[in-house]
Amino acid sequence: MVRVIRSKGWLLLPVAGFLLASERAEAIPAFASQTGQPCTACHLGGYGPQLTPIGRAFKIGGYTQTGGEGLAASIPLSLMAITSFTNTSASVPADQVAQHYGANNNFSLDQVSGFIGGNVGPYSGGMMQFTWSDVDNTSHVDNTDLRPFTKVFDIGGKDLRIGTTLNNTPTVQDPYNTTFAWGFPFIASALAPTPAANPMLAGSFGGNAIGYTAYAWYNNALYLEGGAYNTLGSWALARIGNDYTIGSTTSPAPYLRAAYEWHWGNNTAHVGTLFMHADVDPSTGVPYQTTGINGADHYTDYAFDASYQFIGDGPHSAMVQGIYTHEDQNLRATSSGTGFGAKYTLEQMRANVSYWYANTYGATLGWQKTWGPANPVLYPQAELVGSANNKPNSNAFIIEADWVPFGKDTSLWAPFMNLKLGAQYIAYTQFNGGSSNYDGAGRNASDNNTFLLFAWMIF
């Protein structure tokens, strides 16, 4: 459960979440109908969002590829629903229980989403998601990635694709699943506690900003992208159902991405780097309100990522992914008047390895570690979600088993329906700075260990 807490004049901001809420989707039947390809062509495991080389080419190509037949190939609509059961090792405190839910062992309708996705002619396309959640009874504009223009040029016998994107979340447009918008875990409980600390790239501008970037993809190998993000105004955010997290940008926030990939036999790999800097007026803790009375806070993120993927001729496929992020923080606005310093750092490492048999049975092991110096500005002591020692340190191990009975070209109702059933367990050895009594109210890191059963359906 994620909350914003006002404490003695400074802000605890766990709204980005260490393990992001379960608002992930990319393998929509509208794309399968448009291309005439099964989900397995574009997605490892036949469900997504892990992209194969074909899936990356489709996304970088602006969702413009066609090949499907019949009326369904021209209908760019899909519907998704996620329902789950959540158990934590210890019940959450009574004053932290989500409305209409119990302190533990909850069944929930996490979200119902509608999608508009596909091509608009040969040079443009996109995807928009609209989501309602029963957990907090809210509706909002979700993941949006529009490609106003894309085209391939021949450069000395090599393809150079250029394009532009208009999107609402940094990395939602990224073709590599190491990055945050589409990174593992692809689904997480909307009711379980999650650690407070997360780098800016991992969700601080998720759904509350507009980014415009341009990219180039040379010879299906070198990928370069650059652009900037600005947060929306409070009037617009109130109407699309999203809010500020760390604050509102005071000037365009630059975003840069570079990656290089290799292909040999049934193998593919990539290495890459990301950069983003933002100057923000911090949130006041009141919905849709920020303040610049004490100036701006400054965040700078540097990330390095890599992956390896094996797509065999037989039933076996696998992927290894990792991303490391370093963040520099100058919190001169939020720290003003508190007596605390303004300059801090944050480090995070995420890694996972997954295996699929016949694109039907899958297992994934993940690890996420966040660490840094004590930061009383962002991580004050507070029940359940706070840090008694003001440190952001958290360490989680994740195991997930999945069954995807559909998604193949011979599947029942292909390509109009897909389903993923899964079981996930998250074990914490550290949470918000400690292993025992991390919040100063007697809660241990292991009390937040989470068992999740989920059904993820899309039509």
Please indicate the count of domains. Answer: 1
Structural class: mainly beta
> How would you sum up the major sheet?
16 strands, antiparallel, barrel
Unreliable segments (pLDDT under 50, ≥5 consecutive)?
Answer: 1-23
The named CATH superfamily: Porin
Reported CATH architecture: Beta Barrel
**Global morphology:** globular
Could you name the CATH topology? Answer: Porin
Q: Could you estimate the helical fraction of the residues in percent? A: under 10%
Our measurement of the CA-to-CA distance between the termini, rounded to an integer number of angstroms, reads 28 Å
- Gyration radius over CA: 21 Å
Number of strands: 19
Beta-sheet strand percentage? over 45%
Q: Give the overall pLDDT as a whole number.
A: 91
Q: What is the chain-wise order of helices and strands?
A: EEHHHEEEEEEEHEEEEEEEEEE
Biggest sheet, spatial arrangement of strands: 3-4-5-6-7-8-9-11-12-13-14-15-16-17-18-19
Number of helices: 4
CATH class: Mainly Beta
